[in-house]
Each structure stands twice: as C-alpha cells, then as structure tokens.
Amino acid sequence: MQFGIFTVGDVTADPTTGRVPGEHERIKAMLAIAQKAEEVGLDVFATGEHHNPPFVPSSPTTMLGYLAARTERLILSTSTTLITTNDPVKIAEDFAMLQHLADGRVDLMTGRGNTGPVYPWFGKDIRDGIDLAIENYALLRRLWDEDTVTWNGKFRTPLQAFTSTPRPLDNTPPFVWHGSIRSPEIAEQAAYYGDGFFHNNIFWPPSHTGQMIDLYRQRYAHYGHGTPEQAIVGLGGQVFIRPNSQDAVREFRPYFDNAPVYGHGPSLEEFTSQTPLTVGSPQQVIERTLSFRDYAGDYQRQLFLVDHAGLPLKTVLEQLDLLGEEVVPVLRKEFANLRPAGVPDAPTHQARVAAARRTPQQETQA
Question: Is the pTM of this model over 0.85?
C-alpha cells in the first residue's frame, strides 16, 4: 500500500497572524513539502491543478519535473489533471516526457475540477463536462497505446496519422487514477478501462464514499478485469496531528474555522464526526485511517492533505515528521496484516512493465 500527501496549492492567510504568503513563497514551500515527504519515507506526492486565485499550481508537470531531479524514490502524481479543459494531446506528451525525466516514477489522476469558470477560460462549456471527460480520456488512451492515431471527435480538431512524442517509457503509459467525489459516470469510466478509482473523501460521509467505491468495484468485475476485491482504489483524507489530541484541536481550530473551503460552516467537532477529517494524536489518526477499510475495502493508496488553509511551512513539516515516524509505519504493518491474499499491491511503473512482459501462462500462475 502506498502512503503520501497531496496539495491543492492554496495561498491562504494564516488566521493566527494575518500573514499571506506570496505566490513564489508558496510554490517553494510546496517543493520543500514534497522533498520532505521523501525524506520521511512517504511514497507519493501529488499536486492539484488550478488556474484561478488563490491557487498556484497551474502547471503540475513543471513542478513535478523539477521534483524528478531532486528526488530518487518518490512517486510524482497529480491530485487533479483537468481532463475536461486540457488537450489530450498535450496531456499525453507532457506526462510521457515526465515519465522519462523521472525514470517511471509518475502517474496521474484525471478529474473535472471544482471550478466552474475554468471551462470558458479554455474554450469549453461546463454543460459538456462528463462528455468531455469521456471523449478526451478515450483519445488520451489511444495516443499512449497506439503509435499512430487517426481520430475524429466532437470536442477538438481531427487527427490524421498522428504520433504523440515521446512515446511512453518502456511502452508502458503512466498509471491513471480517475478522481471523483460524486459522479458515478467517472467510477464507470475507471472500471471500463481497468484503471484506478480515487475518492477524495474529505467532505463526504463514509456511506457516500462506500457507495461510490462499491459501484466502481462491481463494474470493474463486470468488465472482466478481475474480482471486485482486485480493483485499484485510492482515498484522500485530511489530518492534523500533535502528540496530544487536545493540543491538535486547539491549534488547528482557527485554521479550520477560516479555511476557504469548509470554514464558517459546521463546527470542527461536527465535521470530524461526519467526515474522515482527523484532528488528534498519532494513535487517533492510525485508528481512524484503519477504519476506512470498513467501507472502502482493501485499498492501494492513501493520500493526506496536510498543508491547507494557511498552515505555515514549519507546521506542515512537523506534520510530515509525525506521519513518517509515528503514523505511516504502523499503518503499513496493520494494513499488510489485514490484507487478504489476492488483493493487488499499489501499481508502480516497474511492476506494470514486468506484468506486460509476462506470458499469459505466467500471468495465470502469478
């Protein structure tokens, strides 16, 4: 199982001081956070994609390319690649290039995003959101899987005998997670292709997350990719950790109360009781995260949001120390002990290359 962090890259005032970091400072902080994630033994760093203030990560592959040169083991991912408003040709080429730069330590999560105005900014209509996601991804897959593509669709100009360059590393495209909070069509899409399904369950109760994942698992089996238990599932979550739970609640409360997304709404206590947000001690984070298995089943990737809502860099780095030293080692051991035989490991480039090279007989034996 893979453990990591994701960032939405917001530039938010620290409610305890009123200080607002500049864009340059925030971008550099995200890079420091990613490198710290590798240092403390996490597996994945993922960045969102946004094209509006107060967010800064408008070019994820630029950031991840920089990190590829400064990390050795970390899987570099996106927590959203806007499949609706990005050109599939550009996605295909950018992520294949990133694969080569990072020696395969790359995957991506496609999504529609949560900012309605982004559609007209890129010449699209939000009413076409689902259709764009379906058509654009179908083209992206062909661009990676086929050396020469002739294609005609509804939302972009046709392609005639087109070759996307560079070709995917080792003839194995990056693994794709389809991210969605509420759209069953996206769970269906992930299942159809045999890709991963990532549910960022920060804002939703366990019952909703469980329903979405169960739909994906059943449809994954329907399309012949394996049993429901063999489907590839990822979860999001948010934590704030201190050695003492009372200190965690006291310190995090002003950040929660003023957060741009969920601030000025339900209380911290209400939100933590109804969603996976966990604010407390390392043991509380461990117990809460292990409970995700009750409604998600055995899954492959857990990402935590730790740098949202104006938290200063020093505090975020302390969170990573606690994750790496006290939380994730226990979670690795406990999840491994609970995992039944036959449940696949999290996908990596090396494992997928090896699987592609096995004969059908070897695959059956495996």
Answer: yes
